[in-house]
Amino acid sequence: MPLWVELLAMLVYGNVLVVAHELGHAAFARAGGYRVTSFGVGLGRPVLRVGLRGGVVFHLDRWLIGGACTAIPIRSSSARRVLYHGGGLVVQGVLAVVLALLPDSWLVDRVESFNLLVALTNALPWRFGTSASDGWYILDALTGSRRGGAVLPTRARLRRLAAREATIGSPVGTMYAAMCLAWLDVHCNKPRAANAFFEQDPPESAVEPWLDGLYHYVRSEWHRLQGRPLAAVQTARDTRLALGEDLVDEAAALIALAEARALVDAGSPDAAAKPLARLTGLSGPLGRQATAIALRTVLDGDPDE
């Protein structure tokens, strides 16, 4: 077989396999606690954008090489992430079975080999800088996120995500990246750096309860660290009232923590007992934060008690 034919065939079936791998991630996203914001075929600047149901943006890029599925978490981190990060490998496993059942030919052999290469590259756990394989994320999820190293992605990675999603025209992805950048500023006790984000109208969140709750949690913390604890309390209470039963458990816990912290800062440690009561029995990082706030309410109260 001439080399140019081999290369042309690899360009075609290679792209098909990569796109199929990304489709696997998209198919398992919701089950794994993620929401797809954009799905693209190719690299470079988009030449075609189509808005799909649920706020997903499909884009066809300038160079038809590879593809990408961009998804954001819609719940706090959990072992369910294995489903999302393993979705591409599941699709490749199904393809391997189908290819094994087909009659032998040079094309089937080539596709089988390339499919195995892509699967192994993604299954092996590796990480270089801000890039990591599906295998690394799967191992991270199974070990309780002990390998991640940081609560939030790096600022550079978030900025790249924000720029890419803005170029694609994905409102949900752009909002999420901008919110995480503001959260990072608040988390680092630099609330003024988040002023530009919170002083404008609330960004598009596509009525996703987890994102709505997370946005208002960070907004409440921003108020508190700016020396406005009463505004922080009001933000937390308004959020709980507005979202009601749509507020998922993890977001409700964050809102309760923000309200309790703000009440302590406002000089009302006794009033913090009510939001803290919503966190009774909670374990993990949120439970430890609740315990720390409860200790503060005691220390800020009657010293004899």
Descriptive overview:
The chain has helices at 3-28, 81-101, 106-123, 134-142, 155-168, 171-187, 195-198, 209-225, 229-243, 249-265, 273-277, 284-299, and strands at 34-51, 57-73, 127-128, 131-132. By secondary structure, it is an alpha+beta fold. The protein folds into two domains: 3-142, no CATH class; 164-299, Tetratricopeptide repeat domain (Serine Threonine Protein Phosphatase 5, Tetratricopeptide repeat, Alpha Horseshoe). α6 packs parallel to α8 (209-225). The chain starts with a helix and ends in a 6-residue tail after the last helix. The model has no long low-confidence stretch (mean pLDDT 88).
Short structural description:
With 305 residues, this protein is α+β, with helices and mostly antiparallel strands. Helix content is 59%, strand content 13%. It is built from 12 helices and 4 strands.
Largest sheet: 2 strands, antiparallel
Query: How many whole angstroms does the radius of gyration measure?
Result: 23 Å
Beta strand %:
5-15%
**Major sheet: arrangement of strands:** 1-2
Label the structural class. Answer: alpha+beta
Count of folded domains: 2
The whole-number mean of residue pLDDT values reads 88
Distance between the termini: 86 Å
Number of strands: 4
Estimate the helix proportion, in percent: 55-70%
Number of helices: 12
Order of helices and strands: HEEHHEEHHHHHHHHH
Low-confidence stretches: none
